[in-house]
Amino acid sequence: METDKERAPNTQDWKLLHPVLATRRSFYYLGMCFLAFTVVAFFAWLRQLRFGLGVTGLNVPVYWGFYITNFVFFIGISHAGTLISAILRLCHAEWRRSITRAAEVITVLVLFFGVGSVIMDLGRPDRLLNVLRSPNFRSPLLWDVCSISVYLTASTIYLYLPLIPDIAILRDHGARPTFLYRWLGLGWRATVKQKRFLNAAIAVMAVLVIPIAISVHTVVSWVFAMTVQPMWHSSIFGPYFVVGAIFSGIASLIVVMALIRRIYFLQDYLKPIHFNNLGLLLLVMALLWFYFTFAEYLTTFYGSDPSHLVVFYSKLSGRYAVPFWIMFVTCFVIPVSLLARRKTRTITGTVIASVSVNIGMWLERFTIVVPTLSQPRLPWAKGHYSPTWVEVGITVGFGATFMFLYMLFTKFFPIVSIWEVQEGREQAVPEVVTRVRSYLPEETVPSA
To answer: What is the pTM of this model?
Structure first.
């Protein structure tokens, strides 16, 4: 059994505990700023509860607007943790060790705001109980509820398991609240048996969360694709939504990493190589996103279905041309131009590309939802959607509340996994050498 001294972080890794053990005044100022937006969102929601959805821009036939756009966007961002962390862990990518927890926290927190967006769209929260009271198993909406519930459960377990050794470190060094760390630590003593069980459990969850994550955004796409609405009824929506989810998830992770690196002075742990590698992944996803987008619009144009072409031209040159072309520039032109060259694939370059991608991916979800609903198949049912301050306030409030909860997590738990970094120093280097040697032919000594 290892002693407490052996489990303690070394001198270099103590800075990972500093955000938990000490709180700067700026933490409270920033937290209050985020909470101010949360309060605005809360009052906007109260107004909606009192006067109904009439205070929003939603109407017939545009019954989905900002709220469902936010729902698809938040569920997409959630892929940052499970897919990126799990795939990198299974591939033994050693550079992942400093970024996995930052990604996994995004997944768990952002799912609540995805579900919250649906509740906002329902108008009355109690209507959510109708899914349980009168379930319709033929409805993609019920499939969505089931898949997101499973996803949230699996993602929470996948976040918690690697947290246990770090919680034990906080427990053993008297961090407060003591009862919380003692309870969550589950008696962790870093024995050989405990390590073996933990590594096996993490490996099992890493395998499980990948198909679960893929199924979640596929089911989200089916909410649209299972209808006969113009430009929604398409078999390409499943992979298209999954690619878009990974795309926005990587971009969100890069932005969060840059903030953590700057605020908590973690330059030794979140290095340029991490941003370079994630930037390359973002570049690949940008090219895949362009492929699926081009394929979707090409088949729509070539099919020449009048109902589809009305929506098609409203995006390219009509009422929704501005958000559509901004989407194209921010999702493809800017990130590809920055990430394709090593000279601009710096920390600053990848962050700019990531912010651009997040803006573009939100606009992509908006241009999927609203133009189709405003141009339905029945010509006398055309509508126009313009969001009100209620929808804008709730949307901004959701983003601010997410950032506040993320800050709160960093106050109670290390945002960089201490034990994984230590394990990387002690075990990963010789393991990598052994693995690389197994790929290559054995050296032969030339005969005299």
So the answer is: 0.91
Burial 276-288 (b: 16+ CB within 10 A, else e): bbbbebbbebbeb
Type of residue numbered 375? Q
Write down the pLDDT at residue 7: 54
Domain ranges of the chain: 29-421
Q: What is the token pair recorded at 105?
A: 């926290």
- 45: which residues sit within 8 A by CB, 6+ positions away? 120, 394
Length of the chain, please? 448
* Residues 345/351/356/359 CA torsion (nearest 10 deg): 150
66-115 confidence digits (pLDDT tens): 999 999 999 989 877 777 788 888 887 888 888 999 999 999 999 999 99
Closest CA to 129 of 114, 119, 116, 120: 119
Q: Which residues of 100-119 are buried (b: 16+ CB within 10 A; e: fewer)?
A: bbbbbbbbbbbbbbbbbbbb
DSSP, res 379: G
Tokens coding 87: 């795939």
Tell me: pLDDT of 263 over 60. Answer: yes
Which amino acid does the sequence have at 55?
A: V
Indicate the pLDDT class of residue 5, thresholds 50, 70 and 90: very low
CATH architecture of 29-421: Up-down Bundle (1.20)
Is the preceding peptide bond at 61 cis, omega within 30 degrees of 0?
Answer: yes
Q: Cα–Cα distance between 187 and 63 in angstroms, integer? A: 51
Whether the bond into 177 is cis, omega within 30 of 0: yes
Q: If you ran DSSP here, which 8-state letter would residue 447 be given?
A: P
pLDDT in tens, 149-189: 999 999 999 999 999 999 999 888 877 888 889 999 888 89
Query: To which residue do tokens 């339905």 refer?
Result: 376
What would the pLDDT profile of 432-442 be if each residue is shown by its tens digit?
778 777 877 87
Give yes or no for a contact between 92 and 434, defined as CB atoms under 8 angstroms apart. Answer: no
